[in-house]
Amino acid sequence: FLYRHVHSLHHQSRNPGPWSGLSMHPIEHFIYYTCAYFPLLFSCHPLHFLYAKFHADIAPIGGHDGHDAPAGGSAYHYLHHSLFECNYGTPLVNFDRLFGTYKEVVKKPSINNKQTN
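-> structure tokens emitted (117 positions)
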């Protein structure tokens, strides 16, 4: 139900770009940004809220920007956007391995990487 009516909007980005990480249904935005407001619930300094909000704003860029990272990166998450039932997110790589939803990224050799004599 949630995927079909809420999260499927995010998956309309088959070839995601940096900002497609924040392309979500309003309900998903509400749930996602709730974490940024936890510091306010505990009367923390306003800078804690600003840090959490800033992190929530930029964190999805890493999984959708087209560059790889040691712990997953975009190629890992691109498979999720094309196959849907694998590689749920960079912070969840170990959970993907644990639950059998991990798919290895097979990199094709680039013409630019060939050695010439």
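Residues 72 and 90 are 5 Å apart (CA to CA).
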